[in-house]
Design goal:
Bound molecules: flavin mononucleotide
Distance between the termini: 53 Å
Number of helices: 7
Helix content: 10-25%
Largest sheet: 5 strands, antiparallel
Structural class: alpha+beta
Strand content: 15-25%
Length: 372
């Protein structure tokens, strides 16, 4: 039994641990003849890479990806393209410091996975959390870079919209800002505040959570299926599967519980191009588990990093009460680096459903329907 594989038609299987020699994934089911270079993948990995600012872990990992298989030079164009065979992607770990973890070898870090791994498997790799380490998410980002190319015209973007209790001002939202500050924050003013706020958290040896919003543009209508293949259910599972994620919303999410039916209705009108236009998007671009063609909008909540410099009560693996404090290098807000990871997971879900839709339905059904 193994649960390291994502997806049905667009699939990837990730491998590796935080302190092993390498991590990576094998992407299977990617259609042939899609232009793909290591640079395409590296660009995305560089956005998740640690050690890029004082607000993320100082572990220095170049996260240089190697494409080991599944690509070939297309003679007609001279471009490197996918061949339709498994695409193996490998990223070497170069900056492991196992001694940082010797003090927590037998003590369970509250909020981390050591206890549950021990209960289930009878052992756990305490060095950086082993398989529970977010190093594994580099493999997801690499797979996501391939997935982005599968759906023509698809653009998946994400932004940090809340850090600790502090939300952004949505009226100042500017996608161009996201790559200009170290927080992937679309509100320049709030990003300036986050610098001093997170400096305080970091210097206190503490940590905070965050909320990330992920948006997909260019999603064709019709992706997803009733009832166990609902697009929103698969997006929720994919985002929830990211380390430290404790909540997911689609569209207006939990806010809809307090709305009236009138306010929540995404009313429709015919557009000038003969296609329907939705007058709002409370549903987040999905109805009945199937995409409407609007923006797909999801949000996920990331808990505060469990590694903190303040002593916490715990037990050890011999059954003694003790205390633990985590030394080593950690992100004071793991939500920051979760931004490109959320994008990657959404891209993978959409690529998978795009191929599933094409496999079952083929050409889109005619709409508007002809008069009878
Ligand atoms: C980008 C990223 C970096 C992370 N870095 C750390 C870290 O330095 N220390 C830590 O305790 N947890 C870190 N985590 C969270 C743990 O991987 C996660 O909490 C742990 O595996 C337990 O799983 P759970 O929180 O999903 O239940 C990170 C998560 C992400 C998304």
């Amino acid at each position: 039994m193994s649960f390291n594989t994502f997806g049905q038609l667009f699939r990837f299987t990730s491998f590796g641990e935080s302190h092993g020699p390498a991590i990576g994934c094998v992407v299977d089911g990617c259609p042939p003849r899609i232009p793909l270079t290591a640079e395409d993948i590296q660009r995305e990995l560089d956005r998740r890479r640690p050690g890029q600012s004082r607000f993320t872990t100082q572990r220095q990992e170049p996260d240089a990806v190697k494409i080991l298989s599944g690509v070939f030079t297309d003679e007609a164009t001279g471009r490197q393209v996918t061949t339709g065979t498994p695409i193996a992607l490998m990223i070497e770990n170069v900056d492991q410091r196992s001694k940082d973890y010797s003090e927590i070898k037998d003590k369970y870090r509250p909020g981390h996975a050591g206890y549950t791994y021990d209960i289930k498997y009878g052992l756990h790799d305490y060095r950086g959390g082993g398989r529970a380490s977010a190093r594994e998410t580099a493999a997801r980002v690499a797979a996501g870079a391939v997935a982005r190319k599968v759906v023509p015209g698809l653009v998946v973007r994400a932004a940090l919209v809340q850090m600790g209790p502090h939300k952004i001002d949505r009226s100042r939202w500017d996608w161009n800002e996201v790559d200009r500050n170290p927080f992937f924050c679309p509100d320049a003013e709030q990003a300036t505040f986050f610098e001093s706020y997170l400096d305080g958290v970091r210097k206190a040896g503490s940590s905070v959570g965050a909320v990330i919003e992920v948006v997909a543009d260019g999603v064709p209508p019709g992706l997803g299926a009733p009832v166990y293949g609902k697009l929103d259910a698969d997006i929720a599972a994919a985002l929830m599967g990211i380390n430290a994620v404790k909540g997911v919303e689609i569209g207006d999410g939990f806010t809809t519980a307090a709305m009236s039916g009138e306010d929540n209705a995404d009313e429709m009108r015919m557009g000038n191009d003969g296609k329907p236009v939705f007058l709002s998007n409370h549903a987040g671009g999905i109805l009945g588990g199937i995409s409407t063609g609007q923006l797909i909008v999801a949000r996920f909540a990331v808990k505060p990093t469990s590694s903190i410099l303040t002593s916490r009560r715990t037990v050890d693996s011999r059954g003694n009460d003790t205390e633990v404090m985590t030394k080593g290098r950690h992100d004071p807000c793991v939500g920051i680096r979760a931004v490109p990871i959320g994008e990657a997971m959404l891209a993978c879900v959409l690529a998978d459903h795009y191929l599933r839709h094409r496999g079952q339905v083929g050409e889109p059904a005619p709409w508007p329907k002809p008069a009878v």
